[in-house]
Amino acid sequence: MSYLRYLLNEELVEIYSEVRDFSRKLCTDIFEALILTILSQNTSSINMWRAFNELKRRIGCTPQDLYRARIKDIEDAIRIAGMYRIRSRKIKLLVKKIVEEYNGDLSFLKDMPLEKARALLLSLPGVGYKTADIILLFCFNKHVFPIDTHIFRISRRLGLIDQKDGYEVLRRKLEEIIKPENYKLVHLALIRHGRKICKPQNPLCEHCIFRNVCPYSMSSRK
Ligand code: SF4
Fold first, then answer.
1. Is the distance from the beta carbon of residue 194 to the nearest atom of ligand 1 less than 6 Å?
2. Dist. CA 145–CA 136, nearest whole Å
3. 94 Cβ inside 6 Å of ligand 1
4. How far is the CA of 191 from the centre of ligand 1 (A)?
């Protein structure tokens, strides 16, 4: 485990060193980050950004802008992302709660203890573990490790969790292994690694830094 810990904390972050710059630019506005996560589900990042920019251009992207907007106008603005009727209803539900219960401002989460802030985010419509943890880590610098589908796949192949284990088991496991100051970089680097090397089909194990500690790779070499 200590060698795997070294690979994750040191080598992986060096290989994908471009994530250092990227991580600093992520999440300048918590509300925009929430809208982006709704727009990002099951669509390409190109279409997510097109829909987001169109939403900003036509309506604006503050809680008040979207609270006042007609659902039809939101649908038209985000049409390119697909599933625009479902997404626009999700946006409306989220905005209603944020405006009516929190006066359109979630910045107070920054000063809340992690578990309380996490529980509050999870109580918002359409916000699950991954979205909540991304907001907490990248917007508020809280020490929580978000898991996405690439991180799940790599972790299972590395034998960190069993097939049946879910989000919370893996999150706690990775939070033990990864240094808190590295959470952002390792999160982003693992996603890149999952896209480029540890792909869903035919992972490129011969190019992977984990190949000598990875049960999946070792069993496929037998
Ligand atoms: S060795 Fe292969 S299966 Fe294991 S993490 Fe690397 S690419 Fe994925």
1. no
2. 9
3. no
4. 13
Kindly report the backbone phi and psi dihedral angles of residue 163, in degrees, each rounded to the nearest multiple of 5, phi listed first: -55, -40
| Whether the CB of 135 sits within 6 Å of ligand 1 | no
Q: Are 146 and 108 in contact (CB under 8 A)?
A: no
Mind listing the pLDDT tens digit for each residue in 64-101?
A: 999 999 999 999 999 999 999 999 999 999 999 999 99
pLDDT tens-place string over residues 174-183: 999 999 999 9
How far is the centre of ligand 1, averaged over its atoms, from the C-alpha of 112 (Å)? Answer: 38
What domains are defined for the chain? 2-23+145-221 (1.10.1670.10), 27-139 (1.10.340.30)
Indicate whether residue 190 lines ligand 1 (CB < 6 A). no
ipTM: 0.99
* Nearest Cα residue to atom 2 of ligand 1: 205
The dihedral over CA atoms of 201, 192, 205, 174, expressed in degrees to the nearest 10, equals -100
